[in-house]
Amino acid sequence: MEANRAPDVPLRIAFCVYRGNPYSGGQGVYTKYLTEALSDLGHQVTVFSGPPYPDLDDRVRLVRVGSLDLYRESDPFRVPALAEFKSLFDLVEFALMSTGAFPEPRVFGYRAARAISAHRDDFDIIHDNQSLNWSLLKLAYQGMPMVASIHHPITVDRLLDFRAARGIKAKVGSFRWYGFVKHQCAVARRVDSILTVSQTSRRDMVSSMEVDPARIEVVPIGVDTTVFRPDSSRKRTKYQIVTTASADVPLKGLIFLIDALGLLQNSYQDVSLKIIGPRRPESEVHRRVRDLGLGDKVEFLGKISQAEIVELYASSHLACVPSLYEGFSLPAIEAMACGVPLVATDGGALPEVVGADESAGLIAKAGDAHSLAVAMARIFDDDALASSLSHHARLRVLALYSWKSAAIATVEAYRGAIAAANEDGGGRRLPIADHSESYLSDEAALRFVP
Fold first, then answer.
1. Fewer CB in a 10 Å sphere around the end CB: N or C, the chain?
2. Which residues does 178 contact at the CB level (< 8 Å), separation at least 6?
3. Mean pLDDT over residues 310-326, rounded?
4. Rounded (5°) CA angle 114-211-21
């Protein structure tokens, strides 16, 4: 690794993501489009990803960081064959999954760090996309500059899931699943340079994760406006609502949108809801649809292509983001880019993203079905308002949310981290005592894994 690269020299970036597929949620979309934009700027990007693997630009190299892939869509929580266990970390991965914990960030970190270490002179910077593990941090303490992205504090997910869990068993299960949050917070407090996507996320990371605000830089993410754009050739279906739920979890507030739909059907008999995203047949959302007799008005579309999403936006009366909390919200800016009138909540950064003045989208109260219903009814009843929201939403996206801008700001953060590492003289000692835990830590496992 070169000690000092000139400001105009392209960087060699090791980009790490434990779950990289664009359909896995925001971190996969971020990986795909940011690495493409970094390549457009002339930088050399290598993505180290666990499964499901990302869809990348041809200029971006992919290093597949293998795992037992215990949560694969076709066979979640699977029991691997004995021959699949190749190392102690395979055993750790399966043991943690078997006891209800989520092992992916931890075991990915060890495997990715081992792969990067073998070629450390090939990279100028490590960019950790939210895995926040001790193994990659150890490389930073050994002298490899590192930047980490935290899209929103995972402590919020943990709190909302715990509150929504019914019964002692469910609450214990929720607590166990989010066991990785403790060590992620500890890692985040030791990363010198953190990127996040909104002022709201920055503020909440300071309060709930106790991260030093001086180490956090806000870099809003973008949307491909050549893909997500208005399509005037399609006729909008009156009273059709579209929403995206990348995961059927309490954080996304889908249950409140279902309740709002129940309120709207009294005045708008043709109202309907299209839900983009994976489904869990036995979830609370499905039970609420059945209880309210909305089965003929709600359609779960599952995973669909970008082209199909754009077509759906073009043919819908409005889009809704009912989340209880968002650190940013890609679905919001994708809908805005397509010019579909938008209703979002005041959860987290949504007013910051959509615009608190409501010129580009209406803001409802998070967790309040009546507030959502009232906002959507305003759009249903006022064509001039719908047209104005559509126009200003597209303009706001074009002005504020581009991947090129995100890439330029990210490169500035890279160069700052490299300069700081050079000033430190090539590394610090990792405080191992700070990350002892109740189960096998990366540092302990290193003594056993060849």
1. C
2. 102, 154, 157, 158, 161, 162
3. 96
4. 45
